Amino acid sequence: MNVFAFIFARGGSKGLPGKNIRLLGGKPLIAWSIEHALAVSRISRVIVSTDSEEIAAVARQHGAEVPFIRPAELARDDSPEWLAWRHALTFLQDTEGVLPDAMLSVPTTAPLRQAIDLENCLDEFAKGDSDTIITVSDAHRNPWFNMVKQNSDGSVGLVMVPHTGITRRQDAPAVFDMATVAYVVRPQFVLQQMGTFSGRVRAVMVPVERAIDIDTLFDFELAEFLLARRGE
Asked: What is the fold of 3-136+177-231?
C-alpha cells in the first residue's frame, strides 16, 4: 500500500497565534507531526500544505516536502479542511499524475501522539472495508448522562433523553470523543465526496493522554506539562 502523509498547517490561528511554529519541547509544533510521519516506514512521502512561506520553510528544515503553497481562499478561518485535502490531492494528480493508495492526515494539533498510533490507523485502513479511519478517545462527558442543553424556556435538560432511567454513567450508551491524532482516507473518496461521514467510517482508539488537541494557550500549556512528565 502506497501511503502519503499530509500535514495541513495554515498560517492564521485566532485561538493561538503562530501555533504551528510555536516551540514545544524545543521544536516547532509542526515538527512533531513531521517526525511522527517520518518514523513510519510504510509512509513514502510527507507533504505539508500551508499558505505560509514561514511555515513552509520550517517544514522543509524538518524533512517534509512543500510542493505548493495553499491558496489563501483555502486557508481562512471558515475554510473547510476537506477542501484543503482535495486541493492537495488534485495538485499531485494534475502535476505528477499520481495518487497514493491512502492519504494519511497528521494534524499538528496532536503532538503527543506516537508513531504506533499512525501504524494502528494504517492497519485498520488496510482491512479494506472503510473509506475513512478516524481516531477517538474515551469521552469526558456523555450526552445521555451528564451533558445538558438549554431549553427555550431557559431551563436545561439532557442533550439525549434515554428511554429508560440512567442513574450511573456506566449504564449510559458508550460514546467517544473524536481526536485529531490522525485520519486515513481513500483519495478518491475525498475527491468525490464532501465529508468524513459521507462514507463508511471506522475508528482507532487512542489513550486520552496522547489525544490532546491544541487550539488555545491552555491546551498548549497542558501539552507542555504532559510532555515534561513523559520525559521524567
From this structure: Spore Coat Polysaccharide Biosynthesis Protein SpsA; Chain A (3.90.550)
Strands (E), 50-113: 102-105
CATH 3.90.550.10 domain span(s) along the chain: 3-136+177-231
Long-range contacts of 188-193 (CB under 8 A, 24+ apart): 188/99, 189/131, 189/132, 190/82, 190/85, 190/86, 190/89, 190/103, 191/86, 191/89, 191/90, 193/131
Per-residue model confidence as pLDDT tens digits over 163-214: 676 666 667 778 899 999 999 999 999 999 999 999 999 999 999 999 999 9
**Which residues, 6 or more positions from 221, have their beta carbon under 8 angstroms from its beta carbon?**
none
Q: Are strands 102-105 and 132-138 parallel, antiparallel or unpaired?
A: unpaired
61 Cβ contact partners less than 8 Å away, ≥ 6 residues apart: none
Residue among 101, 124, 126 nearest 189 (CA): 101
Cβ-based burial of 197 (10 A; exposed 0-12, middle 13-18, buried ≥19): exposed
Going by C-alpha positions, the residue among 67, 64, 69 that lies closest to residue 53 is 69
Specify the pTM.
0.90
Q: Which residues have a Cβ under 8 Å from the Cβ of 98 and sit 6 or more positions away? A: 92
Of residues 133, 218, 225, the one with CA closest to residue 181: 133
Judge contact between 16 and 214, C-beta under 8 A: yes
Identify which of 94, 78, 97, 22 has the alpha carbon closest to the alpha carbon of residue 52: 22
> How many residues are listed for the chain in this entry?
232
